[in-house]
Amino acid sequence: MIEKILSPETYSLLVEWALSFCKNLIVALIVYFVGSFLIKWGVRLITKMLEKSKVDRSLYSFLTSIVNVVAWFLLIIVIVSILGIETSSFIALFASAGVAIGMALSGTLQNFAGGVMILLFKPFKVGDFIEAQGYAGVVKEIQIFNTVIRTGDAQIIIIPNGGLSTGTMKNSTAEQYRRVDLEFQFAYGSDVNEVRQAIAEVISANPLVLQGPVDDSENVAAPWMGISKLGDSGVTILTRSWCKGADYWTVYFGLNETIYQTLKTKGFMFPFNRMDVNILNK
């Protein structure tokens, strides 16, 4: 019936095209099944490798998703090419769409890149106390685009990872030990040796203060103190002592209060700014 409708040349070309298409379709199906198997196997392999490398879970799940999407996109391009469909315009369309989306989401992509850098290099981790972008608090969660911190007054701050990864950031809990620096000012005429002895007794009596070097840190030293400056109103003594990072604020406020009470009890005078006003009668 078809042979009567079509000319022999057209019929021959149609049969040839159908046979070629069927052959390409069979090859495309084989490539599809083999490619899908390889993609699933490759994603599982990458996931296991990332798990063994102890990369953050949110990062490796995102990376495996990206690998999965890219692999499937390449597989589709190969299959379309096998079927004889022109892929250059197809790829150009996706490239143009990618550029447009990239420009529209430039800030989001910057935050994504920052999140990847943070999760890979780990300048801080969940539970660390950091100061960055004008905020200070404990890190509660590191997301792929943002980092969530909790401030001391129980406020939740969400900081974009772009600025966090490229700006200055202070991590107060990265080290196991911290140094506590305190300054105390006394009136001129006070016996410096007695003041130093009184302060030393308070510091040595505090169980949270480390009294000497420890084996697992090359920074920790015994408590030290000295005169740091001679001011307008009095003499300033600087004390430096070490403690565990978790005990920093307890030691800081505890030493301040105890040293003040001790020196006050011993009769040492704390200077304060004073202004003398002389009234001249004409």
Q: How would a crystallographer describe the biggest sheet?
A: 5 strands, antiparallel
% residues in beta strands? 15-25%
Strand order of the largest sheet: 4-3-2-1-5
End-to-end Cα distance, whole Å, is: 134 Å
Number of strands: 8
Described by the principal axes of the CA atoms, the overall outline is elongated
**Count of runs of 4 or more consecutive helical residues:** 8
- Mean of residue pLDDT? 81
- Residue ranges: pLDDT <50 for 5 or more in a row? none
Rg estimate, integer Å: 36 Å
Tell me roughly what share of residues is in helical segments.
Answer: 40-55%
**Could you state the order of secondary-structure elements as H and E?**
HHHHHEEEEHEEHEEH
Q: Class by helix and strand content? A: alpha+beta
Can you offer a commentary on this structure?
The protein is an alpha+beta fold and 282 residues long. Helix content is 52%, strand content 19%. It is built from eight helices and eight strands; from the N terminus they run αααααββββαββαββα. The chain has helices at residues 2-5, 8-52, 57-82, 88-104, 106-121, 161-166, 192-205, 248-265; strands spanning 129-132, 135-142, 146-150, 156-160, 169-171, 177-187, 224-230, 234-244. It has a five-stranded antiparallel β-sheet. A hairpin with a 2-residue loop joins strand 1 and strand 2 (135-142). Helix 2 (8-52) packs antiparallel against helix 3 and helix 7 packs across helix 8 (248-265). The termini are far apart. 14% of the residues are buried.
List keywords for this structure.
single chain; 282 residues; alpha+beta; five-stranded antiparallel sheet; three-stranded antiparallel sheet; 52% helix; elongated
